[in-house]
Amino acid sequence: MVKHKFVAYLGAVLVAAISPASAQEQLRVYILDRIGTTSLDRDGYGCFDPLAALRLDSDVVDGFVGNDTRDNFGVGSCAELLSGTSVDGAQRITIKNQTFLRGAVAGGNVTVYMPNWSAALANATDGYNETHMNTANPVQQIAADLRVRVAAYQQCLRESEELEQRIVDYNERAEAIDPKRAVTGSRLVRGGGASPVFQIILPDEEFRELFAEAQNLQADIDAHNQRCAEFQDGITLDQDYLAFFESTQ
Questions:
Q1: Which residue among 62, 181, 223, 231 has its CA within the 20 to 30 Å range from the CA of 30?
Q2: 237, 75 in Cβ contact below 8 A?
Q3: CB 241 within 8 A of CB 48
Q4: 27 phi and psi angles, rounded to 5 deg
Q5: CA-closest candidate to residue 134, choices 66, 82, 63, 83
Q6: In sequence order, what are the beta bridge partners of 102?
Q7: Do the Cβ atoms of 224 and 162 come closer than 8 Å?
């Protein structure tokens, strides 16, 4: 009974809805300049999905941040890249006559597309545009909020794994106990005849401790479920964002 009860409490928390980036289309990429390994001199913005990068660039150049761009930052298809971020194999490219810096971040595991106005490089800063960066300011808070939420989500996953291991350990010890040794049943007689049966629980001290452990474990599970309720159905997250996020921890 304990085993099923605990598993039922934890099961939903472990579900993660990790979605791929938005649908792709055929794009022609033209390389303007091969920069090589470089780093960012200032904070900037980039996208792991080239379509999202095109939208970000178009929005900001037109002087606003649209809902699609906000949504892309909200699920991690785009992110803030902090000053000092290393970019490997950096190239200046054009897609649909829009200029980007393309390179690998997160230890080479993720390709990022930074609008040219956002890429202040240690060895090539001429494309950086402060006015456009100011226009893009609203996405900074969206990116920060996502980082906080993903950190909380990751913590909930770690807690779930720890709780599940505690449950396994508890169940193994509980199932090893001979039920006949765990409790003693006693009939109480009233008025000289058979009265309703009352069961008196007389656990040995080791079982009393096990029962207290079960109560503490259930309390920890309840607290975890309350704290992590918002992640019961997982979160929608660009598949490249998690690699990027973990590389910056």
A1: 62
A2: yes
A3: yes
A4: -130, 140
A5: 63
A6: 91, 113
A7: no
DSSP state of 199: P
Give the C-alpha separation, 50 to 2, whole Å: 50
The backbone torsions φ and ψ at residue 99, rounded to the nearest 5 degrees and listed phi first, read -100, 135
Distance, CA of 197 to CA of 216 (rounded, Å): 30
Q: Residue count of the chain, please give it.
A: 249
Decide: 23 and 52 in contact? Cβ < 8 Å. no
Please give the Cα distance from 175 to 162 (Å, whole number): 20
Please identify which residue in the block is written with the tokens 């992110």: 79
Interstrand relation of 193-194 and 189-190 (parallel, antiparallel or unpaired): antiparallel
Look up residue 248 and give its two tokens.
Answer: 């910056």
The pTM score is 0.75
- Across the range 187-209, mean pLDDT stands at 49
Integer CA distances (angstroms), 217 to 159, 163, 164, in order: 12, 8, 10
pLDDT tens digits for range 153-197: 999 988 888 888 888 887 777 777 766 555 544 444 343 433 344
Assigned token pair, 8: 């039922």
Nearest to 34 by CA among 71, 87, 80: 87
d(CA 37, CA 25): 28
Best CA proximity match to 78, nearest among 238, 194, 231: 238
Report the C-alpha gap between 60 and 134 in whole angstroms: 9
